[in-house]
Design goal:
Blueprint (H helix, E strand, L loop, with lengths): L11 H17 L7 E4 L6 E3 L3 H6 L6 H6 L5 H11 L9 E3 L1 H6 L7 E6 L2 H10 L6 E5 L3 H8 L7 E5 L8 H15 L4 E8 L2 H12 L7 E7 L11 E7 L3 H18 L6 E6 L3
Helix pairs in contact: 1-4, 1-10, 7-8
GO molecular function, one term: 23S rRNA (adenine(2030)-N(6))-methyltransferase activity
Family: Belongs to the RlmJ family.
Catalytic activity: adenosine(2030) in 23S rRNA + S-adenosyl-L-methionine = N(6)-methyladenosine(2030) in 23S rRNA + S-adenosyl-L-homocysteine + H(+)
Amino acid sequence: MNYRHSYHAGNFADVLKHALQWVCLDYLTQKDKPMFVLDTHAGIGMYDLTGEQAQKTAEWEQGIGRLLQASQVPEALAGYVAAVRSLNDGDSMRWYPGSPWLTQAHLREQDQLTLSELHPLDAMELAVNFRRQRQVKVLQQENGYAAMKALLPPPQKRGMVLIDPPFEQRDEFDQVINALQAALKRWSTGTYAVWYPIKDPLTIGEFHQRVLALPQADKVYAVDLLIREPLDNTKLNGCGMLFINPPYGLTQQAPALLEFLRPLLAQDRGAQAQTQWLTD
């Protein structure tokens, strides 16, 4: 529980994750029916890139910094880019939104967002950041997997669970699989979005196969981005997102999004990107 996302806010992994999250929410909100979103590892919701932690690593410069300087951004990325720009003045870059803020920006009167954060300091800051948001509930120092068990299925019957753990623990993939298995039994029609780091691609292939083995995982779609050739499995060589029951629009826009982001976010030779249905 030592992970602090402030060091990594706005990096290449955030760009991929939040761009896909934005597209997914765009399509989920096209229907008038109410939506429920659970963010299991919410962080603090908004990050100051001029703060000490972000400045220490400056990872955002090779992530959102590159994207904001790019020309001819594809339509799939336009909404996300506009959302980030709306928080900053001109070309200066100070504030970067986390997944809670990006979801909150999509909420309509009939929607609800629940945020779970285990780290005590981050949980306190998260609660302060969303204290005036009537449609947002913050579960302070709550295990996100326990929140899935307690809150699913939601009364709204449709929506998304965003699972974005720090992967500090050796058994994190096991925890994700167990949480998905239990959740799908109770809410098989919900959209589940799981972010994961890619150090060793073989580990990710095994994770994909374990998800496919879950009885209710009938529609599984994966988006993977490598920023370098994965020769050293101690490094964060890339990241991906796995979707169960993805909105149709997400699967249609993801390939163009990845084609644009791969060369933009590459940090060394061997950068690769792929989107694939893991089920027929």
